[in-house]
Amino acid sequence: MTFSPRIRARTAVAAAVAAVLTLTTACSAGLGGPASSRTARDGVIRFTFAPDPIWDYMNDTGVVEEWQQESGYTIESSATWDEFGLFAGGHADIISTASFEVPYLEEQTRRDTVIIGRYNAERSRILVRADDPAQTLEDLQGKRLGVFTTVSGTLVWSALVEQMHGLKLVDGDFDVVVADIQNLSNLLARGEIDACICYPDLSARELREGSVRALYDGKSSADLFSEIEAPGHDGPMGNVFVARRDWVDDHPGEVSAFLDLWDRGLAEWQQHRDEMIERYPQHFAVSTPEDIAFMKDYVARHDWVTDEVRFDAQWADDESSIFDLMRETGVISDDVTDPKFLPTEGVQP
User: Fold this and answer.
1) How many Å apart are CA 220 and CA 199, to the nearest integer?
2) Please, which residues bridge with residue 305 across strands?
3) Predicted structure pTM score
């Protein structure tokens, strides 16, 4: 199972960007700190997660402590952007990553994995300056397209652009510029690039001020994928929960309890979304009252967090179809296999 040479060659850039992010944007999570060096053991879940507002909120408000007391399980967590590294080193039972990056995770870590839960949809948009007449990426051929990496969400956009317009996004019809994820929308507003694959929560100021706008009626890559390939589907997922296959097989109780905890977390998000944005503005790259207010309104209209962590077999099939699209469009090689899923929606532990 291998990724195409075009994608593999870009992983060093992605790693460098991740390193920069670790130094410049990492914020401590509720149970942050170094990963546990202990080996896996019954009753303990070693969970590694990038800094996250819902996880912080559940720790700070006692939800995790309450869950531990009621479930009888203990969760050891560490906050880091290097989830792949800790997983490869055997220091995590569960991590999060994009669903479409799981085959690469397995290839790099040489560990069999299974997707046990869903968390949020791939939320990136194509942004251009407000005065740019472009309607789609087809109007931007040869222009400078800013990305923070040529893997991650760029994989999905590459497949969509090929499907919709017959264009090659990377090493093809655009001048791709790799830049810091937090600076992309600012570079766009200043005219240093012509468009970007940007996350709305890292573009709040420019979107609020109206200096940039989104193409495709503001739809994310997940929105467009749903329309084109899987009507009604909420993916592909920018974050799913992935676990070692052997650990899942040996610890069904821990898996079920972990999903229960995150169902509570998703419910807390729905009930206290505004409070979380106010409480942890750093997770949304906002600081001023104006940007915080904008982000509250934006997320209320474009929430990328799922309602439930568990999924059924049909959802897994729909999520897997992103791999069909990426293979059909040459974004990944034909020998890349779909990730494995563990449907548990409606299944009693």
Assistant:
1) 9
2) 120
3) 0.86
Residues 6+ apart with CB under 8 A from 263: 308, 309, 310
Return the percent helix, strand and coil in the chain, to nearest 5.
Answer: 45, 15, 40
Domains of the chain and any CATH numbers: 5-122+233-293+303-328 (3.40.190.10), 130-228 (3.40.190.10)
Structure tokens at 243: 């676990």
DSSP secondary structure of 293-326: HHHHHHHHHS--B-S-S---HHHHHHHHHHHHHH
- Please report the DSSP string for 206-220 in residue order: HHHHTSEEESGGG--
- Average pLDDT per consecutive 10 residues, the chain (349 residues; last block may be shorter): 32 33 32 44 88 96 97 89 77 92 89 96 97 97 94 92 95 94 95 97 94 96 95 94 95 96 98 97 93 96 96 96 95 92 76
